[in-house]
Specification:
With 269 residues, the chain is of the alpha/beta class. Helices cover 47% and strands 15% of the residues. Helix 6 (155-163) links the parallel strand 5 (145-149) and strand 6 (169-173).
Amino acid sequence: MASLIVYIVSDSVGETGELVARAAASQFDAGKTLWKRFTHVTDVNSLREIAMAAASDHGLIVFTLASSTLRTAMMKLASAYDVSVVDVLGPPIRTIASSLGMASNEEVGGLRKLDERYFRRVEAMEFAVQYDDGKDPQGFKEADVVILGVSRTSKTPVCMYLAHKNIKAANYPVVPETPIPDVIFEIPPKKIFGLTINPQNLNEIRTQRLITMGAAGAGTNYADPNRLLEELDFAKRLYRRIGCRVLDVTNKAIEETAGNILELLYKNN
């Protein structure tokens, strides 16, 4: 049974080329396949050495090179040394360039950078869920942002929106009867944002919440005007004690509040 020697050549880590080559090789009942990966190749001399080695091994070359100059050089060297070659990126790049009417930016490792951004976003979203509504405050030290606020000031939605921007955000509910964890005072105030809201607006939101839950008229003080003033006053004094930035979310969309936080966060860095 025939054996196969495949040279994977890349200006990055070579994962894309190897994945494509392995997928193609799986379609054959070939013998043992030897995979040789050459990463971070950025000069013609290295390509020449690889082409010579592949010719000596009677192998084939599968390459992913962002640079059109290096792709052309690889094709010429493969031809010169009579080595079979597969250009993974070249054809789709040329097709897309023709469709868009513009040249590619020839950025090395572009896909990997996209993948890293994706995984950072997933990590941030998992973080927001894990540390939502005061769960495990000790983990707040790892947060990029900590949001404080009384109930129904949109703490959770704002955190999830920030997570989509790769920001690790945690939130803690401010309740007069519940002691504030010491860890909150150990976090740099520049990372903490206290949300406040107009009492009347909060009353409308909470009243609607009670109706939705079927708890209207159940004797709770959740939407009681005096209770709301007590909570908001407690939150105001807490924010002053911490020294954090305060944002009024009255009639603000979640995107606007999150945008304000991002602006202040980046301005501070």
